[in-house]
Write a structure and sequence with these properties.
elongated, six-stranded parallel β-sheet, Udp-n-acetylmuramoylalanyl-d-glutamate--2,6- Diaminopimelate Ligase, Chain: A, domain 1, single chain, 2 domains, 26 strands, 11% helix, 29% strand
Length: 219
């Protein structure tokens, strides 16, 4: 959906230099951006690219606006402003809240009505899923795990039993949270497995990369 520069500037506490009614619908680099696209500038290393840009607008700091040949959104810190604007212009895919008929849900689960549970998800007994959370195709959630609000678990994520994920946690595809770590006791040259009885606790606003592993605690 296109946004006017006026609306985008208001969202990042900036102001517009040029026509505030210009609309943009995507982001791109200084070099590649064209009509209907916005970009950002943070380093004098790219001054030549700034002067040559064909973007509809550039997000930049006040001292750099004289070098900008197009409209600008002037802010104190262009990089996080760009991140927020990119999030507005490129939101996550829309999904309809609910539980896919191919999902398997255990007993005594508390899944908020605004959450989305995708196809082929397996959720074990006693799991709690907060408002607005997405659990993508093929995920596996272990017993008594708690997942907070507005989390995003992309496809094929595994969260083992009794783990805790806070609010707004983003877990990319293939990550595994809460499996056993290397817990072994040396008994005269023979390894004896130590049960891993702790939990994995992920706090609010954490992002976990694809295929990452985070082991549970030993105790």
């Amino acid at each position: 959906m296109p946004y006017s520069l006026e609306k985008l500037a208001a969202a990042v506490d900036g102001h517009v230099v040029g026509d505030p009614g210009i609309e943009v619908d995507s982001v791109n680099t200084l070099i590649d951006a064209g009509a209907g696209q916005i970009t950002f500038y943070t380093s004098h290393k790219y001054k030549n690219e700034l002067k040559a840009t064909r973007a509809a607008a550039v997000i930049l700091a006040d001292p750099d606006q004289d070098d900008c040949p197009v409209a600008a959104i002037v802010v104190k810190n262009p990089h996080p402003a760009f991140a927020r604007i990119a999030g507005l212009l490129h939101p996550p895919p829309h999904v309809q809240p609910g539980i896919h008929p191919d999902a398997v849900i255990g007993a005594d689960c508390d899944i908020d009505a605004s959450a989305w549970i995708g196809p082929h998800v397996t959720i074990a007994d006693g799991v709690r899923v907060g408002a607005g959370t997405w659990i993508g195709p093929g995920c596996v959630i272990g017993e008594r795990t708690v997942i907070g609000k507005d989390c995003r678990l992309w496809s094929n994520v595994t969260v083992m039993h009794e783990c805790v994920l806070g609010d707004r946690v983003l877990v990319h595809s293939g990550a595994v949270i809460g499996c056993d770590g290397f817990g072994q006791a040396d008994d005269q040259g023979r390894w004896v497995k130590i049960p891993q009885l702790g939990r994995a606790i992920i706090h609010d606003d954490v992002e976990i990369g694809a295929n990452a592993t985070i082991d549970r605690g030993a105790i």
